[in-house]
Write a structure and sequence with these properties.
Helix 9 runs antiparallel to helix 10. The protein is about 50% helix and about 20% strand. The two termini are about 20 Å apart. The protein has an eight-stranded mixed β-sheet, sandwiched between helices. It is elongated. The relative contact order is 0.15. By secondary structure, it is an alpha/beta fold. The protein contains ten helices and eight strands. Bound molecules: uridine-5'-diphosphate and magnesium ion (MG). Magnesium ion binds next to loops.
């Protein structure tokens, strides 16, 4: 029996890159006949012809399969839908549709898997992206590394391979606030990495809006770290101690000086404003966690599948 490797690829409004994606993937598949290949393209509620194009491609080449979600659920949910649909695969490669992750790297990852690795990460040697996005990515990775209880290895995104035991572990994690690199660090298993140069997307516009990336980053921090809560406790202790000492000072001063004049308005105003700010930040941080708890207890599924083509 040939080993079965499935690629899981979230697709959102990618009609501009799909033809090239199909061509490049078929090229890799044909060059490695010892593997039973399939590509599971998860259409995440695209508003263009992506879904129809994938269905047509399945007609031409049955190795390409379609999972159609009922609406746009976001990249993480689409990834989860693909992992769950890859029932027949011995290993899954997770990648973006826009060819920023070069498919030619896949055989190298498969080789690492066949040599015993269960989680293979593609690590970026370089990144072609520039400007604000690039700076934001770098800041986030630094921040996350410092905050997280399960540090993600730097310079890796979604691109990588998961063997069957790791896929099963992933499918069991049904939390709503999903941050793939964090979860991948969390599941453990025998790990390996391959190096690559991250390209600019082959065509079209980035589909992850900047605000989505910010939300994704917050998910990453809040679902893998208690540090913001702990920092609040420390801040509270610090401000409380200062307040106590200051209070003591005023009381003693009053007893000694027999001070009566109502002075100190500036001090009071500054203290009230400062404490108000600290408290608001505190409530905000608690709220971030509370909102996520609420998301989890609702227990809604992470995605809804409208139809599958080429998969049981
Ligand atoms: N994507 C998705 N759902 C979304 C947004 C994006 O499935 O709501 C897919 C998109 O088609 C692409 C991948 O996620 O395959 C990465 O998106 P993009 O290239 O826009 O993000 P970036 O490279 O900036 O992380
Ligand atoms: Mg991209």
């Amino acid at each position: 029996m040939k080993p079965a490797v499935a690629l899981v690829i979230p697709v959102y409004n990618e009609e501009a890159v799909l033809p090239e994606l199909f061509r490049r993937l078929a090229g890799v598949f044909d060059s490695q006949p010892a593997v039973a290949w399939s590509a599971i393209l998860v259409n995440d509620g695209s508003r263009d012809r992506s879904s129809a194009m994938i269905a047509e491609q399945h007609g031409r080449d049955a190795r390409f399969k379609l999972v159609d979600l009922s609406r746009n659920f976001g990249f993480q949910a689409a990834l989860a839908a693909g992992l769950e649909s890859a029932k027949a695969a011995d290993a899954v490669v997770t990648m973006d549709a826009d060819l920023q992750d070069p498919p030619e790297l896949i055989p190298e990852m498969v080789a690492k898997w066949q040599a015993g690795a269960e989680v293979v990460r593609a690590v970026r040697r370089t990144r072609e992206e520039t400007g604000l996005r690039r700076v934001a990515f770098d800041i986030f990775h630094k921040l996350f590394g410092a905050l997280s209880d399960y540090p993600i290895e730097p310079n890796s995104g979604t691109y990588g391979l998961l063997a069957r035991p790791a896929i099963d572990a992933f499918n069991q994690l049904n939390e709503r606030n999903r941050f793939f690199p964090g979860l991948r660090a969390w599941v453990g298993f025998v790990r390996a990495e391959v190096l690559y140069d991250r390209k600019e997307r082959a065509a079209g516009e980035p589909q992850q809006t900047f605000s989505r990336l910010v939300r994704y980053a917050l998910d990453g921090v809040f679902s893998f770290s208690y540090l913001p809560l702990r920092a609040l406790t420390y801040a509270g202790l610090f401000v409380g101690t200062c307040g106590f000492v200051l209070g003591l000072y005023y009381v003693i001063k009053r007893l000694i000086d027999i001070e009566t004049a109502p002075t100190g308005f500036t001090t009071l105003a500054a203290l009230v404003l400062f404490l108000g700010g600290v408290q608001l930040i505190g409530i905000g941080v608690v709220g971030e966690y509370l909102g996520r708890v609420y998301d989890e207890v609702k227990r809604r599924p992470n995605f809804i599948v409208r139809r599958r083509i080429g998969l049981e």
